[in-house]
Amino acid sequence: MNHLLLTITMMAGEVVEHTSYIEGIVNDIVPEIIGLIELIGIFVITVGSLRAFVLYVRSLLYKNHFPVKLALGNSLALGLEFKMGAEILKTVIIRSTDEIYMLGCIIVLRALLSVLIHFEVKSEKEHGGSEEVTASDY
């Protein structure tokens, strides 16, 4: 009986040891992954915004229609998706309920922004192609 109790205790100790080792790895790696995904989101938003600005300037100079709103809306939506993915990964390393509430609020706000941007892009696709639009319309 004592041998069985000793074996169970040793096994429980090994499980705790393995769990803390894996938890340590997760706590070390996940923040780096979160940072990388957030940087990707920032990069997508920045490049998309610059591209939309270039399209806008071309619209002003050449009096042609370029889908500036669509280009900007699509890049903002994609960038927000990356940022939301990073926020979801943050749930893995949260330690307190205050952090959960704050993270929940951030996720809800980003989701609302994403829905609004998708609505705007869809509206622009439906109405933007039916008439000629110049840079002064933006």
Task: List the topology elements.
Blueprint: H1 2-62, H2 68-90, H3 97-128
Total count of helical runs of at least 4 residues? 3
Major sheet description: none
What number of domains? 1
Tertiary shape: elongated
Mean pLDDT: 80
Q: How many strand segments?
A: 0
β content, as a range? under 5%
Could you give the order of the helices and strands?
HHH
Q: What are the segments in which pLDDT stays under 50 over at least 5 consecutive residues? A: 1-9
Q: How helical, in percent, are the residues?
A: over 70%
Structural class: mainly alpha
**Measured distance between first and last alpha carbons:** 81 Å
Calculate Rg over CA atoms: 24 Å
Jot down its keywords:
single chain, 138 residues, mainly alpha, 3 helices, 84% helix, disordered N terminus, Putative membrane protein, DUF1622, membrane, transmembrane helix
Short description:
This is Putative membrane protein. The protein has 3 helices and no strands.
Description:
There is one protein chain. The protein has one domain. The chain contains 3 helices and no strands. Residues about 1-10 have low confidence and may be disordered. Helix 1 (about 1-60) runs antiparallel to helix 2 (about 70-90) and helix 2 (about 70-90) runs antiparallel to helix 3 (about 95-130). It is about 85% helix and about 0% strand. The chain starts with a helix and ends in a 10-residue tail after the last helix. The chain is an all-alpha fold and about 140 residues long. This is Putative membrane protein. Keywords: Membrane, Transmembrane, Transmembrane helix.
